[in-house]
Structure formats: C-alpha cells, structure tokens
Amino acid sequence: GHDGYLGHSYLGEWCNLGADTNVSNLKNNYDKVRMWNYQTRGFDRTGLQFLGLVMGDHGKTGINTMINSGTVMGVAANIHGSGFPRNFIPDFVTGSTRKMEVFPLSQVYKMAEAMMERRHVPFTATDRQLLTTLFEMTNSYR
Fold first, then answer.
1. Going by DSSP bridges, is the β-strand pair 66-67/22-23 parallel, antiparallel, or unpaired?
2. What is the pLDDT of residues 36-76, one digit of tens each?
3. Any idea of the CA torsion for 104, 90, 85, 48, to the nearest 10 degrees?
4. How confident is the model over 122-141, as pLDDT tens digits?
5. What is the Cα–Cα distance from 42 to 118, expressed in whole angstroms?
6. pTM of the entire predicted model
7. Element (H or E) spanning 23, and its range?
8. Cα(59)–Cα(67) distance, integer angstroms
9. Which residues of 2-14 are buried (b: 16+ CB within 10 A; e: fewer)?
10. 48 with 91: CB under 8 angstroms?
C-alpha cells in the first residue's frame, strides 16, 4: 500500500514492512551475494547476483528501513531506525543499527495476536507454542 522495493526477496507469513522499506538486491560491485547460514554460523556464497531479503515469520521493519543484499532477518525480528542493519538479524530481536535487544516473548505474542486479529485469524495455543519453541531453539544467535 506504499512505496518501497523488495526485489528478489522472500518473506514469511505475518510480516509487515514500514513505508519506504527498501531492499537492495544487487551489490554495487556486481559480486555474487553472500548470505547467513544458520548451520555454519557464517556467511556462505549463494552463487546469485540478485538476492534481497529473507525474512522470517512475524518480521517487521519501520518506516524508511534500508536493507542490504542477502540480509537474513529472523522470526519476530523488529527493525527500525536509520542506517543499514547488519546482514544477519537474529530471531526475536528488536532495535536499530545502534542497539538490538531481545524482543520479549510476551510482546511477540501480543504483536502476533494483534496482527492476526486484523485478518480475522485466531492466535492459538499452537501458535504460541511454536513461537516459544523457536525462541528457545534460536537463543544462541541472540
């Protein structure tokens, strides 16, 4: 419903992009894009020249957010503020380029419930348990 660019990006369910969120899908030097790999805990070559953002379920960006090519943004990550955030934004964090902190599960549940309610979809005990399990599984990345 507003301006922005998402070229060659992959978004999960229940994501929300603030107005004028822009994602680069091509590096300035035309090199192949590297992307975070959870298994190796490092950045791997993708072999792709065009790759934007990979955003987990319930991810959010604020107004005018800028994202670099090949950025991985985890489940329930909430990013806002000026400048480019790093290329790997862990699951369940909130903040800006200056400071990121753990996004408390109680707030994640509240946000998810409000988002889903807008679409007349109930936030169930199963949804809550899934987010809880993912929070626990990804703790070492935060």
1. parallel
2. 999 999 999 999 999 999 999 999 999 999 999 999 999 99
3. -150
4. 999 999 999 999 999 999 99
5. 37
6. 0.92
7. strand 22-23
8. 13
9. eebebebbebeeb
10. no
Structure tokens at 70: 């090949």
The token pair at 97 is 């380029």
- Containing H/E element for 112? helix 105-118
Handedness of CA 117, 142, 44, 30 (dihedral sign): positive
Strands 16-17 and 60-61: parallel
Q: Which residue has the tokens 């065009």?
A: 50
Residue 94 has pLDDT above 70, yes or no: yes
Measured from the Cβ of residue 98, the count of other Cβ atoms closer than 10 Å reads: 9
Count of residues making up the chain: 142
CA–CA gap between residue 65 and residue 15 (Å, rounded): 14
Other CB atoms within 10 Å distance of the CB of residue 114: 10
Is a pLDDT exceeding 80 seen at residue 1?
no
DSSP for residue 91: T
